[in-house]
Known about the structure:
Elements: H1 25-30, H2 40-43, E1 55-57, H3 59-72, H4 75-78, E2 82-84, E3 101-107, E4 112-118, E5 122-128, E6 133-136, E7 139-142, E8 148-151, E9 157-160, E10 167-173, H5 175-180, E11 186-188, H6 204-209, E12 229-230, H7 232-244, E13 255-259, E14 273-279, E15 288-290, E16 294-300, E17 302-307, E18 310-315, E19 319-322, E20 328-331, E21 339-345, H8 347-350, E22 358-360
Antiparallel strand pairs: 1-19, 2-3, 3-10, 4-9, 4-11, 5-8, 5-10, 6-7, 6-9, 8-12, 13-14, 14-21, 15-22, 16-19, 16-21, 17-18, 17-20
Fe (ii) ion binds at residues 116, 118, 122, 157.
Amino acid sequence: MALETPTRARKRERPGSKNTAGLDLDELRKLWLKPLWLVLSDAFTDEPRTQIVPHIWKWSDVRPRILEAGRRISAEEAERRVLMYLNPGLNGAPGATQTLFSGVQLIMPGEIAPTHRHVPSALRVVIEGNGAYTTVSGEKTLMRPGDFVTTPNWAWHDHGNETDEPMMWLDGLDMPFVLALNAMFYEELGDGYDIQPVTRELDDSQTRYNRGFRPHRDAFAGNYSPILNYRYAEVRETLALMERAGDALSEEEGVMLDYINPLTGGPTLPTIDAHAQLIRPGEHTRAVRDTASRLYFVLDGRGASIIGGQRLEWEKGDTFCAPTWAWREHRVASSDAPAVLFSFDDAPIQKPFSFYRRQALLEGDGHQSSL
Ligand SMILES: [Fe+2]
């Protein structure tokens, strides 16, 4: 559960010490030794510090370039035709934040991405295209715009496009976290199994688990949601109902829902939590921050966010990130249509160890500056 911290952290000068005490630092360096007291205040900081900076990847920049990649490199050559979203603070290392990878993947008509599996958990959110498939552990789903598809850790998965239009989706993975732990494994199912056998009916998991039922004496034992595809049409219906019911009265985050594992009520993936939120015309959400790092994808509409003091203008198809402990607030102009933001974050990695903290900005009007 979120730990609410009602007061802001007190700021004060850290005394620290730059006293080398006459020690020979060169000699210590050769022995791979160093006095902690010289760097104590860099390690035990008053608040989280991060290299990650707020950034937006505009769909109007990305779309023509991923389609150009589709003309220039075949799916076989590329293996995975993805343009990665790199955080400018990471000096080119793969990652949109310190724990989360994101990018856009393109599958042209007739192409496949062969069956493989890996330690990182993955999610997809469909940007453009209608009806291409992802198959995970023998269950196939046809993906429509805005759908949220999960691919758990070490699950066999493959993709294909049997439609006559390009299919593009946002990938989200916990890959930088797995790499930081040096825990990566990857393998392919191999010759003859580029397309894995489909062993279940279409929408099997939705029908079993997303209707308030579960099979009697269910044997599902995963630490992830058994549901493969969360349909955007259902998300919009639920957000609309919540809006009619007045669920946005807290002024924080607009009307927001969490995608859940129906067996636990927890996140869909053990390392990644996912949400959708409706920002209504004229709404300006109160600034909040937490220790999770986060990516937003604009499912519908347009608006602006202030992330860590930086204003980002967004519209449908854009992706932007919010670093750890950066204030974030969203606004949609009263003359615009309602906007829907999808977001995913690394809070599930932090919560089991009590690292997670969240705070709302209570001073002034609850905003960093006027939008
Ligand atoms: Fe994959």
